[in-house]
Amino acid sequence: MQRADRPLRCVSYCEGMSQNLGNPSHIGNLDAAQLGPQPTYLPDDHPDVDAKRRLDAGEEPVDVASILPSSCLAWAELADEAFDEGRTVDSYAYARVGYHRGLDALRGAGWRGAGPIPWTHEINRGFLRSLYALGRAAASIGESEEAARVEKFLNDSDPTAMEQIAGNRG
C-alpha cells in the first residue's frame, strides 16, 4: 500500500533501453501504408471468365446474363447497351444487378468493404464496369448523391479504372 506522504514513482521496464525509432510510420523497410487492406482479386472460376468467352464468341449479353446471372460482365454489357440506346432507367437497373452480384463475389473472395480492386486483374473488370455504369446511369436520372458515392468507390477501388473504362467506350 502506498503511503500518502510518498509520491508515486512509475518505473518503466525499458528505462535506459529506449532507442530512437525515427519516423514511427516507417519501421525497418516496412511502410505503415502497406498495412492497409490488401487488393482483392476475383477467383479464376468466377462466372465472368465464361461470360467473357461467350461474349467474345458473339453471344448476346441478354443470353449470357440468363445463363450466367452471377456474371457482373454480362450485366455491365446490358447496362452499356441500354445506356447507348437512351434507356437510362434500364441501364441503371442492369448496372445495379451487376454491382450487387459483384459485391457478393468480392465478399466471397475475402473483401471486407474497403481496399483495392485492381483493374489490371481482368476478372475484376466486370464488377468495375458495373460500378462505372451504375454511377453514369445514376447521374443521368438525377441521382447525383449516389453518382458521387459510386465515383468515389470506383476511384478508391482503382484510380485508373474510370479512365480505362471511359477510354474503351470512346
TrEMBL record:
What's the name of the protein? DUF3151 domain-containing protein
InterPro entries listed in its UniProt record: DUF3151
Pfam families from the xrefs? Answer: DUF3151 (PF11349)
